[in-house]
Amino acid sequence: MTVDSEGILHLLDLEPIEKDIFRGAGLATSWRRTFGGLVIAQAALAAARTVENRPIHSLHGYFILPGESTKPIIYQVERIRDGGSFSTRRCVAIQNGQTIFFLSASFHVAEEGFSHQTIMPDAPDPDTLPSLQQIVQRYGDIIPTPVRQYFDRGRPVELRPVDLGRYLPMKDGETRPAQQKAWLRASQKLPDDPVIHRAVLAYMSDMTLLDTSLVTHGTTVFDPGIQAASLDHALWFHRPFRADDWLLYVQDSPNANGALGLTRGGIFARNGDLVASVAQEGLIRRRRPRPQAQG
Which of 87, 179, 206, 277 is catalytic? Predict the structure, then answer.
């Protein structure tokens, strides 16, 4: 994945081309298909551009086709309803004349109410953890090549994994729980607009998540022998936050069966606030060898 010097703000600078229709920039990736988090973020932002004074509180999306990472995406927003407390929008992402993703989003007027949350789990302070570049420098000779190549790319979001052992081959008799943690933040300072911060968190929420379903099986989505793809994505926003401050992404996978893996996540601010919750199901299957042509 590469990104220019304008970073995440460039990717979220949607171009209005007609009423409730927007165009978003692409982001080249080594997989050549569009990064799902980018489509989620741009679709959520397009929907938010049609709502006034009501922050997005939840979104649900389905990935239909893999987009082409180098091409722009068109977003068409449908205004489903504006009620007394809630607004509902539907957004369709189109590329090459085909729907590649669609999203339903709900917006809620800020109001007082009950409050409780789960406790933030323990994790090392992000400032004590190495950056991805430092990880490559220190451990590049023992990290699998696909993982090392992923760590060594530029990206608009800074990532610091908590458990590096997760990326190493499993030893005989070793077991690993289907869970992982990582700290994330935007790589650049963001404006104060909460709409931007929620869009950036939507982008982040697709990072490393599906990979959690493979932890206990001793492999990763970067393994060329694994075919992996996000199928759906749900995100709920709970409390104010800044996406350019460190956020702890705590993930687990309660189930995998057949070729499907279910993953969940809680996103915490450094002060312990639970700011968002995430759920996703994705395709995880071992690639089948192609039959050799008969000559």
Answer: 206
Ranking 4-8, 21-25, 130-134 by mean pLDDT, the lowest is: 4-8
Active site residue 206: yes
Whole-prediction pTM: 0.93
Identify the domain containing residue 199 by its residue range.
126-289
Looking at the domain assignment, is residue 282 inside a domain?
yes
The question of whether 280 is a catalytic residue gets the answer yes
Give the CATH number of the domain where residue 94 resides: 3.10.129.10
Same domain, 163 and 246: yes
Model confidence over 140-159: pLDDT tens digits? Answer: 888 888 888 888 777 899 99
**Residue among 68, 69, 23 at smallest CA distance from 49:** 23
278 Cβ contact list (under 8 Å, min separation 6): 205, 209, 233, 234, 235, 236, 264, 265, 266, 267
Has 13 been annotated as catalytic?
no
Q: Are residues 162 and 62 in the same domain?
A: no
* pLDDT for 165: 87
